[in-house]
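Lecture notes, unit on binding sites. The following record was shown on slide 14. It pairs a sequence with flavin-adenine dinucleotide.
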Amino acid sequence: MEEFDVIVVGAGPAGAAAAFAAAKAGVGVLLLERGQKPGTKTVSGGLLYTHVMNRYFPDFGSQESPVERFIDRYVLGLLDEQRSTCVDFFDPGMSRSPYNCASVLRSKLDPWLVSKAESAGATVALGVRVDGLIRSQGKISGVLSSGDEFRSKVVIQCDGFNSLLSRDIGLHDEWQGKTVGIGIKEVIRLSEEEISRRFRLSGRSGVEYTFLGLPKGVEGGGFLYTNSDSLSLGLILNMEGAVLKGVEISEAIELFKSHPLISGLVEGGTVEEYSTCLVAEGGFESMPPLYAGGYLAAGSAAAMVLNTGFNLRGMDFAVGSGSVAGELAAEAVKAKNTSSAFMSNYLTRLKQSFVLTDLLSYKGYPKFFRNTRLYSVYPEIMNGFLHDAYFVDGRKKNHLLGLARKSIKGKVSTMRMIADVFSLIRNI
Ligand SMILES: Cc1cc2nc3c(=O)[nH]c(=O)nc-3n(C[C@H](O)[C@H](O)[C@H](O)COP(=O)(O)OP(=O)(O)OC[C@H]3O[C@@H](n4cnc5c(N)ncnc54)[C@H](O)[C@@H]3O)c2cc1C
């Protein structure tokens, strides 16, 4: 039986950051990952907000780092079956240091982060699937893998959203369909020159698109991000909404790609990767307990994901919470105090950091985004209104208020619209 100070389960952004922080603080760390290579068993759209990297991994922006492009253009599109209305925000300052966010591919980001943990002194074991936790004297004291025991003073659980260990420890039951999304992602190969030409990009700058409205009526949205020589394209649909409406995620992505706006953006590309994954959608309200004696949970294992409609954040929370967890685990080991009371400092520190501050201040968003009219009625109204405003056919042209009334008529009642505006104000 082997014994370590700290065992970290899962070498995604949360686990690699936790292992790096604990090893840097001078304690013995074992990082366990089920994949044969980091980044092969996980899915992410791929936009990473750089503030957290500037703090914990300051060489993230260097030429050797896994950055694909720095995003300086943000497009929010409302789609109906054929049409689209886009808000296009461009700020060239965001592709200069300290940047805002970067597109990344997990097949490059995760190995890079794990190499940082290794350089700080962590032992990394790949191809090891943890299937349970060891408990003794009311605390977590190690993990089990295929009958082998790995003992430690602290276990940091970073095994992602669909976690075996959370169920094992009894911290939460099965996830509820309305707080779970199904994500699907494709990496589409296109040459660097073509991407720069098609999206009007220069140097390492990039563009993010997020979309609402397809497939019609299912809570969720689509994304398209530019990498150096590929595009990351995908959908995240609410599980309950997709099941109730009988929408298959594989059909949904084909429908999404066949929309005239999207098909023009991906034309000529070759799909090189295709992956699906569950994603937390419940926000702050659906987070499980984050600590116990000898135990901490970080990243999406703790449901730390935030969807605001115009961005999806999970990786920055993973790196932020993993770093705080790694630092605290090292302190607990040095203080020879891994009691639940000591581990509760984790919650205090997360509340002082951007992780719980942001998740808390956006806690009403998941409720607001459960309104199905956002994904059908309102995109149709907006596209219908702009169609009528732009289209000139020689007949008497109504004034804009009249056109707005016409596009709303029969789609949603005035009372419902007022209620939706109140819900927007209350929850957002
Ligand atoms: C389609 C989609 C798009 C997304 N887009 C974005 C985005 O653009 N930006 C953003 O910030 N976030 C995005 N997210 C969310 C983001 O991917 C997650 O929040 C982030 O990956 C969480 O990191 P993590 O380290 O906590 O978990 P994960 O990235 O899930 O990593 C968990 C690791 O643990 C390993 N593991 C799992 N079980 C075991 C086990 N039993 N034993 C050993 N190892 C194990 C896995 O193999 C994996 O390497 C997206 C998610 C999806 C599904």
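Take-home: The first strand starts at residue 2 and ends at 9.
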